[in-house]
Write a structure and sequence with these properties.
heterodimer; A: alpha/beta; seven-stranded mixed beta sheet; six-stranded mixed beta sheet; 30% helix; 24% strand; disordered C terminus; B: alpha+beta; six-stranded antiparallel beta sheet; 19 helices; 21 strands; globular
């Protein structure tokens, strides 16, 4: 790579003297989005997209030193032109474009090419070198169009209601929860766990409108919940709180649910392949649209996807990073929230 | 296929038997008549022969998707199922086909003799006209198992709930001889094609694990002691020249053990006996692993019959010439059983369970310790005056198993499981120290919690040496305590030893690799036996 290096602390821009989504604390961090594996604690200075600012402050501390930019608003740092471009992953998620002496590198962070009507839709950015994620980098991952997904989810809720069951959706607090809220908007009252509720508040306070929800208090009124919709973060699977929900039918919402083995792994009542990452076709289309002469593949199926890109004539290399542990990192966080909400 | 597709979705997601029964009852209430019969047929393994080879289906999927073979195989090793992999990689449907299950089945039967070209045309048309889940089901209807955890027993319980008919009678009905073209659903359930009086089994009498001192059992002469065997508990019913074998799980398994059935037909008398189905070769009991190779086979080949012959060790007599013997004392039942067995020439296919003679309880302890050498898993203690109880009752029957042996070993390979376990690394290979290196001693896949398996899978993903394919070589770092029932020298294994029924006892997070067993310490266990 010309001016960007993969180091032990993260992806480093040499002339700019800053890191992209570093996994060890650094002086200057530019952050693609608010998930725990990309936005970590302890950096001296943060730069992110405007809509991510409230999320980062909520998750990392109100006192962090943070600056933000609008999408497509450039800022020059030590001679490197930095700008954010919609990644369509979660609210505020951005691809980070770096330009130095006419050479352009784009780091995608996490992204999804399919619009979800809640985060700014993905925009492809042309570049010389493209650093892409590969969470779902196998051809078995193909997402349903949003309308069909919505139809399936609505049908499940209606079926549950017809047999007096409460529909409980399990999804990450940041991203999946807001997307589910959008998919379920208007169907019935949506009750959300405090971890989701607090994050929603932070997002709304920064001026972004979200679908209406109710806070699920720890000592909730069972009658008010019966037959309604509840959204909980993954750490609550198997919790006392979940057991207290009357006649709960539980659905896991994740791209991994595309495979039967995964749907059957957890003892739940349904599994919907709802993902905030690009599917196989999405990854390929993003790579092609970037027109990059070299593609670096990070977290996920990096070996497979990069081998395939080389075979179809797109020079590519895999890169080992510390991303993709979102699940673990955010579960720890939510476990803490769970513990505190019980007190 | 909507009905059937919804049923499969409901069955595959839940691991609760009641929810499965509920879904099946729902299906039987709403599906078309012929579809119900096909469902019973498919779930009991009565399926038409495969009309299209899986290699052809794979080839056509390559042609459509233009994916390289290695990428297909990589996808396959993630999914763990060929029919599902094909269903997932194909492009979205371009039209909609809706046909009931029985029509699909009839078309698949008609497809069998057709040319490859005609088969291709038919399959490709179905693939492009079905949604993902239906496409998967279509591939499964062609061949392969559904792996949704519906046993014959679950199916029968659903039918029993629907109809109110006794579950064991229904088991006989669905296993019995019936033709989908000539029978109707209600006749099948009512058993118009069978005579249930000839097969009706008794509930099994079960033992508790011995929890008190032997001396507390009283006088040794009041107890009948036999070896405990690790096979399949079974009940043989012979009435009116018909023979049925029931497993303890109340499934009819008659057709799986033709050699036992043949021997039973030599008897003149009618009877019901309780005993154990075991793999028996040259009068030696083989391991349960061997017996397992005989189970749930669609065809039992001549070679399989020769490689793993099966026999029956008789424990008890429950009925003799239509007289219920269960209330008679153990001693009397045993005497009658011996008399009955003296009427025919016995061979390896049918034996009386040996009664162990012992003078005092001390001697018995020693006999138990040595049980392992003959592949027995311990002793059974039965009160000589006891009746044959219904189910589990404390006091009259005790099982006294030998303690398992254990070693500490390190994981060296991890492999993804199949079915429900296909997304995680669940099958591991373990090694112990040998000289400066390691040597494989066991493969095991049970004994861990889902949470532990998830944790190990994440670790494997990070620490694997290979990047492609289903088997991962991992850094020798994770230490496990492996329990097993026996150990013997073996020329077939590189380590020189074979463990009997190895399983993971626990994950020793506290133990470093430097402290695992050596091949010398493992071999010493053989000498100690």
């Amino acid at each position: 790579m010309k001016f960007v290096k993969f180091t032990k602390k993260g992806i480093y821009c040499v002339p700019g003297k800053f890191y992209l989504d570093p996994w060890y604390p650094v002086k200057h961090a530019i952050i693609s989005h608010g998930h725990a594996d990309h936005a970590r604690k302890g950096n001296k200075h943060y730069l992110c997209q405007n809509d991510s600012k409230a999320i980062l402050k909520h998750r990392l501390g109100l006192d962090i030193a943070i600056e933000s930019l609008a999408y497509n608003e450039p800022k020059t740092i030590n001679g490197v032109k930095v700008s954010f471009h919609p990644a369509g992953h979660v609210i505020g998620s951005a691809q980070i474009r770096l330009e130095f002496k006419g050479f352009v590198v784009v780091f995608t962070g996490d992204y999804k090419t399919q619009p979800d009507f809640i985060s700014a839709p993905f925009e492809s950015v042309k570049c010389h070198e493209f650093i892409t994620e590969s969470t779902f980098g196998l051809p078995i991952y193909k997402w349903l169009p949003e309308e069909m997904l919505q139809k399936n989810i609505h049908n499940w809720v209606l079926k549950n209601q017809s047999v007096n069951r409460t529909s409980v959706f399990i999804g990450y607090s940041l991203g999946k929860a807001q997307r589910l809220m959008k998919l379920l908007e208007g169907l019935d009252t949506i009750h959300v766990h405090s971890a989701i509720h607090n994050l929603n508040n932070a997002i709304e306070n920064s001026g972004i409108a979200l679908p209406k929800t109710e806070l699920l208090k720890y000592d909730f009124d069972k009658k008010a919940i019966q037959n309604k919709i509840v959204i909980l973060p993954p750490a609550l699977l198997g919790s006392k709180l979940l057991k207290k929900i009357p006649n709960a039918a539980t659905a896991l919402c994740s791209g991994w649910m595309q495979i039967r083995g995964n749907r059957r792994w957890q003892a739940v009542d349904a599994g919907f392949p709802v993902s905030d990452h690009a599917d196989w076709d999405g990854l390929l289309s993003a790579v092609k649209a970037s027109e990059a002469e070299k593609v670096y593949v990070t977290h996920g199926s990096q070996a497979t996807f990069s081998k395939y890109l080389n075979e179809i004539g797109i020079p590519s290399e895999e890169v080992i990073t510390e991303y993709g542990e979102e699940e673990l990192a955010s579960q720890d966080k939510e476990n803490q929230t769970k513990a505190s909400s019980i007190q | 296929m909507k009905h059937f597709s919804n049923l499969i979705s409901a069955l595959e997601i839940t691991n609760k038997t009641n929810a499965k029964i509920e879904a099946l009852v729902d299906y039987f209430k709403t599906a078309p008549e012929k579809d119900k019969l096909w469902l019973i047929s498919i779930f009991t393994g009565k399926r038409p022969p495969r009309p299209v080879k899986s290699s052809l289906m794979k080839q056509w999927a390559f042609e459509i998707t233009k994916l390289p073979e290695w990428l297909f195989l990589e996808s396959y090793s993630t999914v763990g199922d060929l029919g599902e992999t094909i269903a997932l990689i194909l492009p979205n449907p371009t039209h909609t086909i809706e046909k009931p299950l029985h029509q699909w089945m009839q078309e698949l039967i008609a497809l069998k003799p057709k040319t490859e070209e005609e088969k291709k045309k038919y399959v490709l048309n179905a693939w492009s006209g079905l949604e993902m889940q239906e496409r998967l089901i279509f591939n499964k209807l062609i061949g392969g198992s559904f792996r949704i955890g519906v046993s014959k027993k679950t199916l029968v319980n659903a039918l029993s709930k629907l109809s109110g008919i006794d579950a064991n009678q229904l088991m006989h009905s669905i296993i019995g001889n019936w033709n989908i073209e000539t029978i109707n659903f209600s006749d099948l359930l009512n058993g118009s094609h069978i005579n249930y009086d000839n097969s009706k089994p008794y509930p099994f009498c079960l033992a508790y694990a011995l929890e008190k001192d032997l001396l507390a059992l009283g006088k040794p002469e009041e107890w009948q002691v036999e070896y405990k065997w690790d096979g399949i508990r079974g009940q043989i019913v012979k009435r009116n020249n018909e023979v049925y074998i029931w497993s303890r799980g109340e499934e009819l398994v008659t057709s799986q053990f033709p050699e036992i059935v043949e021997t039973i037909t030599n008897f003149k008398d009618d009877f019901v006996i309780d005993g154990e189905i075991l793999a028996l070769k040259d009068s030696t009991v083989l391991l349960f692993n061997d017996l397992q190779k005989r189970l749930n086979r669609k065809n039992i080949t001549k070679k399989l019959l020769e490689d793993i012959p099966v026999g029956f060790y008789a424990y008890d007599l429950l009925e003799y010439n239509n007289q219920d013997f269960r209330d008679k004392p153990m001693q009397e039942r045993r005497n009658q059983l011996e008399t009955l067995f003296s009427t025919v020439a016995l061979n390896d296919k049918l034996k009386l369970s040996k009664i162990i003679n012992f003078k005092n309880w001390e001697v018995l302890k020693e006999i138990r310790e040595n049980a392992r050498t003959i592949n027995s898993e311990g002793l059974m203690l039965k009160q000589k005056a006891s009746p044959y109880h219904v189910g589990r009752k404390k006091g009259d029957w005790w099982k006294w198993k030998v303690e398992p042996l254990t070693i500490d070993a390190v994981m060296i390979y991890a492999q993804k499981g199949s079915g429900r376990r296909s997304s995680k690394y669940t099958d591991y290979t373990f090694a112990v120290k040998k000289d400066d290196g390691l040597v494989t001693v066991a493969k095991a896949y049970s004994g861990l919690t889902d949470a532990e398996i998830t944790e190990i899978s994440k670790w494997v993903n990070k620490n694997a040496i290979e990047k492609f394919g289903p088997v991962r070589t991992v850094k020798p770092e994770l230490v496990f305590e492996i329990a097993f029932e026996g150990i013997a020298y073996s020329k077939r294994h590189k380590s020189g030893v074979a463990l009997r029924f190895p399983r993971i006892k626990r994950w020793r997070k506290d133990k470093p690799v430097s402290e695992i067993d050596t091949i010398e310490s493992v071999t010493a266990l053989i000498e100690a036996q």
